[in-house]
Amino acid sequence: MGIKYLFLSNASGGVNPDYKIGDLMILNDHINVLPNPLIGQHHSQFGPRFPDMGETYSKELIKKAENIAAAHSIRIKKGVYTATSGPTYETPAEYNYFRIIGSDAVGMSTVPETIAAHQMGLPCFAISIITDLGVPGKIETITHESVQEVAMEAEKKMTRIIQQMINEL
Question: Into how many domains does the chain fold?
C-alpha cells in the first residue's frame, strides 16, 4: 500500500502519579497483555517470524515530536503503555498492578497494530491522550462520554504535532 510510517493515537488511563488529565504521552515502549497478533501461521512476506521488539517506537519520530511540541509550548510526557482487552475500564487493583509492572498509561488499542507494523519494518509513532487517572486518591467514575470530552479538548495539540511531523517527513 506504500505506507512508510505508522502513526497511532489513543485515549488512555494514566497510572503514573505525575500525569494529569489531558496530558499527551508519547509511547516509548509498551507492555502487551493481549494475545500477540503474530500468533498463528507465519507469512514471511510480512517480516521475520520472531521480530526483535527492542526499539518498537521510532526514536527518530519521537525526537521529531518532542522538538515540535517544544516549539509550540506543548507539554508532553513519554512513557510505557499497557494494552488490555477491554471493553471495560480498569479496577483500582488493575491500575495498581499496571503501575507496579512499569506502565505509565493503560488502554485498549495500539499495541497489536504496532507489533504487526514493526514486524513489517515500518517506523512506528504513537501518542496517547490521558483521559482519566488510575492513581490512588484520583480515581473517579468514568464513562465513554467523559473520555471523549477530554480527548476532544486535547486532540488539538496532538493533531498539531502529528500534522507537522507528517509535513516534515
Answer: 1
Dihedral over alpha carbons 21, 25, 30, 32 (to 10 degrees): 40
Mean pLDDT calculated for residue range 123-134: 96
State yes or no: pLDDT of 8 exceeds 90.
yes
Q: Which three cell numbers stand for residue 166?
A: 507528517
Q: Are 131 and 147 in contact (CB under 8 A)?
A: yes
Q: What does the alpha-carbon distance between residue 128 and residue 130 come to, in Å, rounded to a whole number? A: 6
Q: Which domain holds residue 83?
A: 22-33+48-168
pLDDT value for 52: 86
- Say what the pTM is: 0.94
Q: Is residue 39 part of a domain?
A: no
Within a domain: 5? no
Give the C-alpha separation, 5 to 60, whole Å.
Answer: 11
